[in-house]
Amino acid sequence: YTEVIFGKGHTYRAGTVGTLANKTAYGYVKHYFDDKNESKRKCEINRLATGCEGVRRTTGQHPGGIIVLPHGEEIYTFTPVQRPANDMTTNIITTHFDYHAIDHNLLKLDILGHQDPTMIRMLQDLTGIDPVKDIPLDSKETMSLFQNTKALGIEPKDILDCPLGALGVPEFGTDFAMQMLLDTKPEGLSDLVRIAGLAHGTDVWLGNAQTLILEGKATIRTAICTRDDIMIYLIEKGLDEGESFKIMESVRKGKGLTDEWVEHMEAHGVPDWYIWSCKKIKYMFPKAHAVAYVMTSFRIAYCKVNYPEAFYATYFTTKVDDFDIELITSGIDNVKERLNQIKELGTKATTKENSQYTILEVVVEMYARGIEFMHIDLYESDAKDFKIYGPKKILPPMVSLQGMGENAALSVVDARKDGKFLSKEDLIKRTKLSKTVVEKLSEHGALDGMSEKNQLSFF
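Given the sequence above, the corresponding structure tokens read:
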């Protein structure tokens, strides 16, 4: 799309250069001498490894980086171009030099994907509402999700003692974010913006703002939450505008304060705790970024209260890779048992298990609100998206069955257009399903009454 905007030949993927890391280089040198049957001292191996470190190993591409060329310029003025990793079959063209070497001269756009707008779009399609015009950002009912569970019509004991209704709401659904909500007790949207700023910074909340709030030295409204807070506060205190900006930029990059700045701040009545806080910060979020996140999260939270089926269908669609429909339809007691198993693993739990834990928490909440999953339907289920199947019922997609790949699921959706499947044999013949997946579908109850082979009727 950037090529459409700026014109062909003016946009290139930002290239990256993969270099040799110290440990890999050490392995190369060691294996070299092993192959030659030579014994070398560790210091000599280290010396040679250090010489190899940083040598180009391969090339790649930035996941969302696009280099934009000014009109009237040729790319070769700045860098040669190439296909990544010498793959001549790909149509992607990247800059040959690592983009860091040229991003001071050329514009680089960072166009990374984000789940929140995807959720908003799906909610719009499912409900028919315009998320910008139809969702009020001052809804007290929606705001209450960040304070308690009342708006959901359930008690914390119904959802494994989770005290808030923020499960599944982007930016606020994790244990870390919910603990922040409990500590700061937000009262409105501006407080949520401040919390989002704290959550995305480095050394801004833990051991910093959290400590100051618990000690009573600061509140959620006076603590430093986003980088803008520093400049605005210092200007209000009477410091020079240019200096206030420089201090903010230094602090938000983790570079701290100079002695001269500290003197000026003290002379203008800036409290000691504020200066202490500035010195601890390593990275700070911009306020506009936090506002954009919170507005989207709040709109999604509004749908959670008012359009529950649409909210859960959308949420589980974004998490479908770690979704296990067999476990979930085996009963809520099995779901709770699995949650306990993952909880007992603690830090030993894998990333996939932690992701599954988050999903199962939301499943428990959904069932507590009286909404349930149906079994996969061979003729009605979508390949990848969860669907609303009437009041309080959600139909899972094909890929929610463990072992069912996206291509196999799409092949079923495509094949069923040509009529019903006569048997399991016919199903395998007309789709990309393996015997194992067909058996799983059968165990799940999606093939009830289907015979093994095609049967001819003589009458």
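Residues 45 and 63 are 35 Å apart (CA to CA). Try to locate this feature in the token string yourself.
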